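Methods — Computational structure assignment.
A single polypeptide chain was analysed. Its primary sequence is given first, followed by the predicted tertiary structure written as structure tokens.
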Amino acid sequence: MKILIILLMLTSIVVNGMTSYHLFKASSYDLSSLLIIASYLSIVLGIYVVTVRKPGTAITK
């Protein structure tokens, strides 16, 4: 499941980045900035998913 989320985040980053670039060239700055923010949030969420570890079972004595 973690790999699937990572792949979705990577494709989201690429698609948002390329779309944002094309909108910026077309002078649509509002949508471009919105997609840049969405791309940034995708990066942050991807890093969070990769770094969070599932807690293991604790052995108590």
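Note: Helices lie at 2-25, 29-51.
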